[in-house]
Amino acid sequence: MGSTDVNRRDLIKRATAAGLVAVPAMGVLSSCATGGDGDNGDKGVTGGKKTDDNPLGVNKDAGLDFVIFDGGFGTQYGKDAAKIYEQDYGKVKLTATQKIRSLLQPRMVGGNPPDLIDNSGAEQMDNPTLAAKDQLTELSPLLDAPSVDDPDTKVRDTLFPGTIEMGQYGDEKVWCLNYAFTVYGQWYSKKLLADNDWEYPKTWDEMLALCAKAKKKGIAGWTYAGQHPYYIPFTLYPFIGKIGGPEALKNIDNLEPNAWKQDAVKSAFEAYHELAAKGYVLKGTPGLDHIQSQTQWTKGKCLFIPNGSWVENEAADTTPKDFGMAVGPVTGLDASDKLPFGTLWAQAGEPFIVPRDAKNAAGGMEFLRIMLSRQSAQNFSKLVKSLSCVAGATDGLDMSSGLASASKALEDAGDNVLNPRLFDWYPTLHKQQIGSVLAELMAGRTKPADAMNKCQEYADRTAKDDSVKKYKHA
């Protein structure tokens, strides 16, 4: 951790207080304090004067320290926004990494965090815990500031519905800004289906029949990121919601007793288990990471992969030009489903945070205000082939195949858009525990009933853990 005047015991205490180290008994981050008010005390640089051109009062002489996650969206959109920021404010130091926690934990503990963090990836820090431990700047000043494009319109009024809510954890305060608007679902190649005269399956019987046809041609039905099984819920959660309605997912999010034993969960687990039992999952999938599974998919080795709309950019190097990348809504069970075909999981993702101890918190929020301009939002979509959280930013844009598909799927879904929260309210439960159970289910190593019991056991354990802050849907 380098030279420091803080001894190791103090560092451990401060790390625990910041919610950055795991609790040994559960492997989860403790979370019990209330959130702060966003006041950075004497930690920050002296602010600048608030004006029409500088509504957040950024000190124009202060530099900005920005750490961006170098993942599926790359970093160019951040570099481009930095150039705009530097036209009016100080120099931006941009650091790209895939090791968010490893790089930033010492700085968060030491009271010297960056001014802005793209808190994403496998090493994502736990945002609810950071908020609960008073480690984040509250972002209402940003949301209530005038937008870059229209001074008469607040930033909050330019965003897709649900964006602000994704940054809230149990109250009205907003602790993070989720920049990308991700469409999750069954990603596929339009060309592969068209070349074989295959129709996209709407019911599970149609899914199994299609997988059987594909298997005869040496093509698997599904693959997924076996090393990161929390990708499986990108289709499984909306499948449960389609079968049982929004309440089925809300029960899971709310850690209700027997939520994982609902009929909708039973039906969904049995359906996914059948994919493995019938040999419709690409051989070797449990050992593949996200890049390897995506590469097998773009090579035409399988029909479907559960993923989010970042995949078009992330898999660009291996995707044939005529692939026709597209996302489809989850295949349903049958006519008894509570929600119609077309139901989607779509929500704001890729969370950006401004640490409470940031030296230039106002600059961090101003950088986000620039990113939320139409110019930056369109640039993001052009570069990474994904929607941003800025509503209407892609209007008139010449969109790639996957981006156009995601935009249309979102439009077609109408009000049937699901917004599960387990993954960000309880990331350890979602990623490590539920993920491990789903890995066993999809590999055919555990039966649906046993998987349901194990998921419920993990959920009950979280519900009873007083060190984990609890959240509820309204």
From TrEMBL:
The keyword Repeat does not apply. Residues 34-56 are annotated as: Disordered. It comes from the Bacteria. PROSITE patterns: TAT. One of its GO terms (cellular component) is cell envelope. Keywords: Signal, Transport. Its main location: other. It is found in: Cell envelope. NCBIfam families: chitin_NgcE, TAT_signal_seq. Belongs to the bacterial solute-binding protein 1 family. This is Carbohydrate ABC transporter, N-acetylglucosamine/diacetylchitobiose-binding protein.
